[in-house]
Amino acid sequence: MSADIIILAGPPGAGKSTTARALAHDFPRSVHLHTDDFWHFIAAGAIPPYLPESEA
């Protein structure tokens, strides 16, 4: 089994969500995951990505 994963990155307001939504519609089976949603699922131990200790 193989799978393609496409990750879009960029600054706020660059059109990542709009592009991801359009791109997801080009595939017969796809999921558009909003990375910000994952922060709500972390129960403990979250380190904000802008802190130096998040590099580890």
Q: Can you walk me through this structure?
A:
This protein has 56 residues and is mainly α. It is built from two helices and no strands. It is extended.
Largest sheet: none
Provide the succession of SSEs.
HH
Broad shape: extended
**Quantity of strands, as a count:** 0
Mean of residue pLDDT? 85
Taken together, the total number of domains comes to 1
Percentage of residues assigned to helices: 25-40%
Brief summary of the model shown:
By secondary structure, the protein is an all-alpha fold.
Which descriptors would you attach to this protein?
about 30% helix, 2 helices, about 0% strand, about 55 residues, mainly alpha
List the helices and strands and how they pair.
Blueprint: H1 16-24, H2 35-41
